């Protein structure tokens, strides 16, 4: 059990600040984030060259130390020592919230183990920013980040996730996005998605539609720039397609009910999957004759 007093720490340790940076538009930097970078003793940067552009833009003159996935294990002990000496450190990634797709999480874990305060600042997040403008249900949702690159691994990943009811958020390279959507279409079926590129930048674009529609648009207008994919959650019909084809209408409805659906919801699902009217399925289930 540990209780952290973020701004009333009396241990003498420094503080590890997790500072979000813009995902494209420099004006998305918060006042608090700028002030924090101006007051810390050291900035731990995923790429010091990228962070230097940010620091120059906001006229911040603070020392940086390279901190990325290839040197994290070597760098963490020294940073923890500095924090124990009372120095404050701001950890930043190249874009967005740190500690998600970079080694910041490892530093956070060790800092917590060492009773060093860890303070997160709110700010830009590509996945959530795209989600709320997608038109796809924002809650519940699951953020997955980058997908496996190899086709067989990606197919296996989608097979595991296809029945999840939550909206899903993925990052993907513009060079792989067409292949990824093809694999997704094969496993998920033709769901509603958003393909978002160049978020917060001048060429920001949302392509909203079914997977097949978005794939067709890529063939006509190829994707350039950083992109992410928002996918509608499962409505439960994927399971029906694979498991219920040999069942009668009544057996299919009862199977949905066993899985937790209410009777009316199960009837509606069955009607949709079989492309029948809800009234006909209702009569069949309740054995009502015309």
UniProtKB/TrEMBL annotation:
<dbReference type="Pfam" id="PF00590">
    <property type="entry name" value="TP_methylase"/>
</dbReference>
<dbReference type="InterPro" id="IPR008189">
    <property type="entry name" value="rRNA_ssu_MeTfrase_I"/>
</dbReference>
<keyword id="KW-0949">S-adenosyl-L-methionine</keyword>
<keyword id="KW-0963">Cytoplasm</keyword>
<comment type="function">
    <text>Catalyzes the 2'-O-methylation of the ribose of cytidine 1402 (C1402) in 16S rRNA.</text>
</comment>
<keyword id="KW-0698">rRNA processing</keyword>
<dbReference type="InterPro" id="IPR000878">
    <property type="entry name" value="4pyrrol_Mease"/>
</dbReference>
<dbReference type="GO" id="GO:0005737">
    <property type="term" value="C:cytoplasm"/>
</dbReference>
<keyword id="KW-0808">Transferase</keyword>
<dbReference type="InterPro" id="IPR018063">
    <property type="entry name" value="SAM_MeTrfase_RsmI_CS"/>
</dbReference>
<protein>
    <recommendedName>
        <fullName>Ribosomal RNA small subunit methyltransferase I</fullName>
        <ecNumber>2.1.1.198</ecNumber>
    </recommendedName>
</protein>
<keyword id="KW-0489">Methyltransferase</keyword>
<dbReference type="InterPro" id="IPR035996">
    <property type="entry name" value="4pyrrol_Methylase_sf"/>
</dbReference>
<dbReference type="InterPro" id="IPR014776">
    <property type="entry name" value="4pyrrole_Mease_sub2"/>
</dbReference>
<comment type="similarity">
    <text>Belongs to the methyltransferase superfamily. RsmI family.</text>
</comment>
<dbReference type="GO" id="GO:0070677">
    <property type="term" value="F:rRNA (cytosine-2'-O-)-methyltransferase activity"/>
</dbReference>
<feature type="domain" description="Tetrapyrrole methylase">
    <location>
        <begin position="15"/>
        <end position="214"/>
    </location>
</feature>
<dbReference type="InterPro" id="IPR014777">
    <property type="entry name" value="4pyrrole_Mease_sub1"/>
</dbReference>
């Amino acid at each position: 059990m540990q209780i952290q007093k973020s701004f009333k720490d009396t241990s003498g340790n420094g503080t590890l600040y997790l500072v979000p940076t813009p995902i494209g538009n420099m004006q998305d930097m918060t006042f608090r984030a700028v002030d924090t970078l101006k007051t810390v003793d050291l900035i731990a940067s995923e790429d010091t060259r990228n962070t230097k552009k940010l620091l120059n833009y906001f006229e911040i003159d603070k020392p940086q130390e390279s901190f990325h996935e290839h040197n994290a294990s070597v760098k963490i002990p020294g940073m923890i020592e500095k924090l124990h000496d009372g120095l404050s450190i701001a950890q930043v990634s190249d874009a967005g919230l740190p500690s998600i797709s970079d080694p910041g999480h490892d530093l956070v874990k060790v800092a917590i183990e060492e009773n060093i305060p860890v303070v997160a600042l709110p700010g830009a997040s590509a996945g959530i920013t795209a989600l709320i403008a997608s038109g796809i249900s924002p809650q519940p949702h699951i953020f997955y980040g980058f997908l496996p690159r190899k086709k067989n691994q990606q197919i296996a990943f989608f097979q595991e996730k296809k029945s999840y009811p939550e909206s899903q958020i993925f990052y993907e390279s513009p060079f792989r996005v067409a292949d990824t959507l093809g694999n997704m279409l094969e496993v998920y079926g033709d769901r509603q998605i958003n393909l978002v590129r160049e978020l917060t930048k001048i060429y920001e674009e949302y392509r909203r539609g079914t997977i097949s529609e978005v794939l067709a648009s890529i063939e006509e207008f190829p994707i350039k720039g950083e992109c992410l994919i928002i996918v509608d959650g499962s409505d439960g019909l994927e399971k029906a397609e694979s498991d219920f084809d040999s069942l009668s209408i009544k057996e299919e409805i009862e199977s949905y009910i066993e899985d937790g659906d209410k009777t009316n919801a199960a009837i509606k699902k069955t009607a949709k999957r079989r492309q029948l009217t809800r009234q006909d399925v209702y009569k069949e289930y309740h054995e009502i004759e015309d």
